[in-house]
Amino acid sequence: MGTMPVLSRRTFIFGSAAVAGGVVFGSYGQAQDNPASPGTTNPLAVDLGPDSVAFNPWVEISPEKITLIAQHADIGQGIGSIQPVMIAEELDLELDQFEIRFAGPSPAYFNTGFAHEIAPFMAADQSLEAEKGRAAALEWLRQSGLQMTGGSSAIPDTYEKLRAAGAVARETLKAAAARRSGAAVADIRTEAGHVILPNGTRIPYIALSAEAAKIPPVTDVKLRDPSQWRLIGKSMERLDIRAKVTGEIVFGIDRKMDGMVYAAVKLNPNKGQPIRSYDASKAQSMPGVQ
Fold first, then answer.
1. Which of 29, 72, 74, 76 could bond 154 through an S-S bridge, CB–CB 3.0 to 4.6 Å?
2. Residue 281 is assigned to a structural domain of this protein
3. What is the pTM (predicted TM-score) of this model?
4. What is the rounded distance in angstroms from the CA atom of residue 44 to the CA atom of residue 131?
């Protein structure tokens, strides 16, 4: 392992379970050097629709659409764009072929990128003691399920695991197409959201979701060399620019839910001291206050 702690491809140990008419390729496990640690349940299993497949916590395909999950919050730094781009690079998707959904709360999205901040070692220190310290920090992060955006940690956290997520989905879709057509997987390729058979037949990914849900996931994947990248590192417009300038995008302040109320915090004027008394009668007498 180098000085940048990431989830390597060996952490992608999947199980499968039937859910809602499809299969969730359910848990991605821990690194092999800590095999006793349990895996983490795929949060996409909860609302998976019929004939849909969630290959991992970041890729979901239904007969209608492809959805890529961004686990880190975008607060103007552009991470809402680069996360799906890293998946799309390996999954062979064009930028207009998928929807982006931000992740809900789940231990599956714990931030591995903080491991080098927590461990008390310089980044250049690759001694055995330093590596053990980083491994311990990573394990603490996994167990705590710390899902956080900040500290320039998003790319160190997702750089390898999001590409691996896309590669797992790509290779499993190829296996599904091989099962349908009888062609050898080695003779099948992918391009622009389609699996392409040896005779040139193009099958959209969405047309393979039901079949992909019925087969074991392909986890022995190889990430592409940077010389083959079409998207990562290339100049592109952020994927949310149009929605932002047209007012279509929904920010947190725009969110409306049934029964929603607004809260305000009243701080103790004597910081750090216990509360001596508290009288909410004036506030509670106002219209609409709960």
1. 72
2. no
3. 0.75
4. 33
